[in-house]
Amino acid sequence: MGxxxxxxxxxxxADILVVTTNDVPGHxxxxxxxxxxxxxxxxxxxxxQIGAGLKSMxxxxxxxxxxxxxxxxxxxxERLVDQARARGANAxxxxxxxxxxxxxxxxxxxxxxxxxxxxxx
Length: 121
Hints:
With 121 residues, the protein is α+β, with helices and mostly antiparallel strands. The protein has one domain (3-120): Hypothetical protein apc22750. Chain B (Translation Initiation Factor IF3, 2-Layer Sandwich). It has 2 helices and 4 strands.
């Protein structure tokens, strides 16, 4: 698996800027639209469950589960951006991820932040 299998984030020319900070240097917030989020719940398939169980006995990274979590986070982020765009934002400030188990059947990932309109100063 290559590096692209373990990463995420935005493309350099994204129309919605997503940052984990409260502000964007060189820009001012002209409108706060409000909270936006993207949510997804994924279950692990049987093959990765068995592989993870065996791997946990000898130690090491669970690459199949890592790849699944990366894909899940990226999907949550895409949904966050889609919601921000639909509400008229051009930025999401203070973006965070929340990850939890969902009823012992999968992993819930929520990307959330504050949708805003920003403009250069």
